[in-house]
Design brief:
The complex is a heterodimer of chains A (282) and B (174). Chain A is mainly α. Chain A has a single domain, classed as Up-down Bundle (Ferritin), CATH 1.20.1260. Helices cover 62% and strands 0% of the residues of chain A. Chain A is built from 12 helices and no strands. Chain A has helices at residues 5-8, 11-19, 33-56, 65-93, 99-104, 124-145, 151-179, 183-196, 208-216, 226-239, 262-270, 272-276. The longest helix of chain A has 29 residues, at 65-93. The N and C termini of chain A lie far apart (37 Å). With 174 residues, chain B is an alpha/beta fold. Chain B has 2 domains: 3-82, 2-Layer Sandwich (GMP Synthetase, Chain A, domain 3), CATH 3.30.300.130; 95-171, no CATH class. Helix content of chain B is 21%, strand content 24%. Chain B contains 4 helices and 9 strands, in the order H-E-E-H-E-H-E-E-E-H-E-E-E. Chain B has helices spanning 9-16, 58-72, 95-104, 127-130; strands at residues 35-41, 44-49, 77-82, 106-107, 119-120, 123-124, 144-148, 156-161, 167-171. In chain B, the strands form 3 sheets. In chain B, strands 4-9-8-7 form a 4-stranded mixed β-sheet. A 3-stranded mixed β-sheet of chain B has the order 1-2-3, with helices on one face. The termini of chain B are far apart. Classes of the chains: A mainly alpha (282), B alpha/beta (174). Chains A and B meet through helix 4, helix 7 and helix 10 of A and strand 6 of B.
Chain lengths: 282, 174
């Protein structure tokens, strides 16, 4: 069950939104088309925001300069997509909250990203495996969203899809090279896959909000993306000489606002400035 | 600005063609193809801009430069519109601008090689690595290798020439 919009507005956030000239209208009613769409868009934007933040943590720490730059640029793409998704979520909500307000003024239980994207970076191989498992979902999701009945969603998907096509090429390529690489790199990639596998299933588990959005033709049902994901993952893992774990167990809850212990730590770093100086602008 | 001194849209296009791209100053924002429309609404000049990449940090700088340029030309009322669709493509970079990129040391986009991200014949089509020849902008050699899918900005990939050994940026096709 997703929290209601009145839950999402912490007192500070509500006050800041009002100060910014918004917040005049009533919160969206749970189960209403507007609330469903807000949550659906926040799920998309929170995935790209939290993964973008995680990837940006590599800046200045990657094994080689070229990969450092590549990681920072991938993070930039993801944060840019976040601005589009969360900007649209704020518009749909109609309470004057901007993409920045949504990114910096919500607390952990009001974020709807999947748990996979909040997993810690660990080593470079682990980061790339997480990216690949995500990209293999992200790419067909954006393709499907290009056909959304909501033109605003379709145009963001078309824009983001061009960027993500390069993400999947890169992450698949590196998973193959490292998986089918040295004994050491192979072992690390298999370890990453085994550790991350229980967090992949959440991408394909829908709730009542997803069902209504799919019915309306705005955002496809999570279950509908499983086939395309399996096809990509199986082909790449085979070429990478990695063994697909046979467990179907999936940790879940992130898409409903229930997160792992890592989420609070991410936010304390990401939201530091707005928490120390609420409402600061420059 | 009174009615008799209002600029025409062709004046505005000309002024915008004086604005350099902040990251690749040898080409202008009109050559980059990101200005999608120029219109007059009463005495308000409306400029429609599309971003190259959604996270491109130059976008806000470009908007600022457009405003500065129009103010310098005496325009008082300016409205900037963001347009996402149709999404920007490197196809909109003209032949002359591509030559300027090459002279500046950036290999211009090779048309028709945008990443698709789709499965082809059971595997990921890694066409940018396999079917793409990028000529070195320094010595012209086709004997080049990709170092990384992402170069100094998201819109570029990092390459190295195997003949003259110079590293260079390739403007990726999207």
């Amino acid at each position: 069950m997703a929290p209601s919009l009145s839950d999402i507005m912490t007192p500070d956030a509500a006050e800041l939104a009002r100060a910014a000239g918004g917040g005049a209208s009533a919160p969206l009613e749970m189960g209403s088309p507007g609330h469903d769409l807000f949550v659906g868009l926040a799920r998309l934007g929170d995935n790209t925001l939290i993964l973008g933040h995680r990837v940006s943590e590599w800046c200045g720490h990657a094994p080689v300069l070229e990969e450092d730059i590549a990681l920072a640029n991938m993070a930039l793409d993801l944060i840019g997509q976040t601005q589009l998704w969360l900007g649209l979520a704020g518009e749909v909500e109609g309470r004057g909250r901007s993409a920045d307000d949504l990114a910096f003024l919500r607390d952990a239980w009001h974020f709807y990203n999947i748990l996979l994207v909040e997993r810690p970076n660990r080593d470079f191989g682990h980061t790339l495996m997480r990216q690949f498992l995500f990209d293999a979902w992200h790419q067909p999701m954006l393709k499907a969203l290009e056909g959304s009945s909501d033109a605003r969603i379709a145009e963001v998907a078309m824009k983001a899809g061009k960027e993500v096509a390069y993400h999947i090429e890169r992450s698949a390529d590196l998973v193959i090279r490292l998986g089918d690489g040295t004994e050491e790199s192979h072992a690390r990639m298999q370890d990453a896959l085994d550790r991350l596998w229980p967090y992949a299933g959440e991408m394909f588990i829908g709730d009542e909000i997803d069902a209504r959005l799919a019915e309306a033709g705005t955002i496809p049902a999570p279950e509908s993306l499983r086939g395309a994901w399996d096809e990509t993952v199986n082909a790449v893992l085979a070429e990478a000489t990695l063994t697909r774990p046979d467990s179907g167990f999936a940790h879940k809850g992130g898409r409903q606002g229930r997160h792992t212990e890592h989420m609070g730590h991410i936010l304390s770093s990401m939201q530091w400035l707005q928490r120390a100086y609420p409402g600061a602008t420059w | 600005m009174s009615a008799d001194t209002l600029p025409g849209t062709e004046d505005i296009w000309r002024w915008l063609s004086e604005v350099p791209d902040p990251e690749i100053p040898v080409i202008t924002i009109t050559e980059l193809g990101i200005i999608r429309d120029v219109a007059l609404d009463g005495d308000t000049v409306e400029v429609t801009v599309t971003p190259t990449y959604s996270g491109c940090p130059a976008t806000s700088m470009i908007n600022l430069q457009i405003e500065e340029k129009l103010r310098e030309k005496g325009v008082e009322n300016i409205r900037l519109k963001r347009q996402l669709s149709p999404a920007w493509t490197t196809d909109w970079i003209g032949a002359e601008a591509r030559e300027k990129l090459r002279a500046y040391g950036i290999a211009p986009p090779v048309d028709g090689t945008a990443a698709q991200g789709d499965m082809v014949a059971g595997r990921i089509a890694r066409m940018t690595g396999e079917n793409l020849t990028v000529n070195c902008p320094h010595c012209g050699s086709a004997n080049t290798a990709r170092v990384s899918q992402f170069g100094s900005t998201p819109c570029k990939a990092a390459y190295q020439c195997r003949d003259c050994l110079e590293p260079f940026d390739y403007f990726k096709c999207i």
